[in-house]
Amino acid sequence: MSDFKDQLQAMFVPEEQIPAEHRIEEIHQREYLVNGEMRQWSGEVSEVYSPVMIPQADGNYKRKLIGTYPVCTETEAMEAMDAALHAYDNGRGEWPTMSVADRIKCMDKFVYKMIEQRTLIVKLIMWEIGKSYADSIKEFDRTVEYINATIDGLKDIDRQSSRFEMAEGLVAQIRRSPLGVVLCMGPFNYPLNETFTTLIPALIMGNTILFKPPKHGTLLHYPLLQAFKDAFPKGVVNTVYGRGAVVTPGLMATGKINVLAFIGSSKVANDLKKRHPKVNRLRAVLSLDAKNAAIVTKHADLKLAVSECILGALSFNGQRCTAIKMIFVHKKVADEFLKLLSAAVDAMKPGLPWEKDVKLTPLPEPHKPDYLKECIDDAIANGAKVMNEHGGVTAESFVFPAVVYPVNEKMKLYREEQFGPVIPVVPFEDIEEPIKYQIDSPHGMQVSIFSNDAKEISSLIDPFVNLVSRVNINSQCQRGPDVFPFTGRKDSAEGTLSVHDALRSFSIRSLVATKMNDTNKQLINEIVNDNDSNFLSTKYIL
Ligand code: G3H
């Protein structure tokens, strides 16, 4: 055991042993974007420490400092708010009234400039949150694909709206219009991708944005501020730096935020929503807590179940909202499943993010190793065991995944969203047991069912589709492909995200209607022929 700990500890090497192309220069951000200006900051800053630790001369290990960023106050947050309100100008601003084709041109320019920053942003994702190099590249490229798909999605919507509809003697043109000022806050685990899955659709629909980067994964947005500045009219994208608890409640309390786009905990989301003085004016697009379960029945292909459960439970060390955070296994196959699962977990490659084929990396949240230990200790105290040889072995910011069995309702791991490399496994005899678990759970995002018996699967599909929002058969839980709807029930989400759904979530239908008589027909024809309105228009984007 201690040999293995030493082996893990040895992954943290002196800086000169890190491959030159992956070393990082400190970045000290002293500016932020508000009202089309990069404003200088000379106040308090926050230090950004990587989960990658460096051995020190005294024999201790220290998280590597990778830079600093401004800790702005409520004053700067309110300035950002004013800029966003001004740019929206009650829907009369340049951006909300701009034609869809012109908004798309701005977005194309942004993507072009974003791609120029790919190398630096990928490096920052690795260093700030410890995501592997391969997954950091994937996160960047998936985000670019998402933006391009969003542009195509908007073109589709616009084409469908470029016509008149007639009913009951009236003629109307129906389009989707922006909602106003959107406060966007993303999570640390997909700091670029998930933030942009709300920010980009909100932006392209004509809203103006207050963008607060996540606590871990802040610096990686710095290289994009200039791109936002260059690509969009002033005041359309404004940044809010500072401690969330200090800067966001006041913004909500103004009552001037029209949409809260937040990916994080339901507790914070509820607290923010309650600050808004007129909740009826606030639309919320939220992706929140989840504890997705896998159910391995006695008819499952165990090898497949193990490989999918590993992907589901341990991709990015289990730090995904969609991760499998609980496994129910039928008693008859439990021993075999646990043997295969434990061996597969122990065979996973730990290391620093840039190491070839690395699967497990250090954790960005400083308190996480202690919290995971607390969960494992609590499970052991309540009768469970760590089943895999290396489970729970910790070296500084790195925790080797633990398969914990048998988990029961007395344990933290039964209820809490561990958001890290611990796999709780619960034995069951009657299929009603996992169904009951889902009914009693505060979460309702996804489930994975492992079975090769069609009758058994179908008997589970019907109850589960009404308890969660996606039932995965013989495959892990996941958000993608991004064209599929991503949502959840209970405390797991509000609203739906997908390329198409997000465009709808950040807009409202508006229509122009009139009675069909000769005068009105002539008026409409004149407006359309003279291109006088961006809304009332039959122009077709190809
Ligand atoms: O953290 C939650 C993400 O939306 C998960 O996305 O399932 O594609 O990893 P993913």
TrEMBL record:
Query: Aldehyde dehydrogenase domain spans which residues?
Result: 62-507
In Pfam terms, one family for this protein is Aldedh
Among Gene3D superfamilies, the record links this protein to: Aldehyde Dehydrogenase, Chain A, domain 1, Aldehyde Dehydrogenase, Chain A, domain 2
Alphabetically sorted, this entry's keywords are: Oxidoreductase
**What GO MF annotations does this protein's record show?**
oxidoreductase activity, acting on the aldehyde or oxo group of donors, NAD or NADP as acceptor
Q: Does the keyword Oxidoreductase apply?
A: yes
N-terminal signal peptide: none
Domain of life of the native organism: Bacteria
Q: Which PROSITE patterns match?
A: ALDEHYDE_DEHYDR_CYS (PS00070)
Which sequence ranges are marked TM in the entry? none
InterPro entries reported in the protein's UniProt record:
Ald_DH/histidinol_DH (IPR016161), Ald_DH_C (IPR016163), Ald_DH_CS_CYS (IPR016160), Ald_DH_N (IPR016162), Aldehyde_DH_dom (IPR015590), Aldehyde_DH_Superfamily (IPR050740)
Q: Which family does it belong to?
A: Belongs to the aldehyde dehydrogenase family.
Q: Give the protein's recorded name.
A: NADP-dependent glyceraldehyde-3-phosphate dehydrogenase
Q: What is the lineage of its organism?
A: Bacteria, Pseudomonadati, Bacteroidota, Sphingobacteriia, Sphingobacteriales
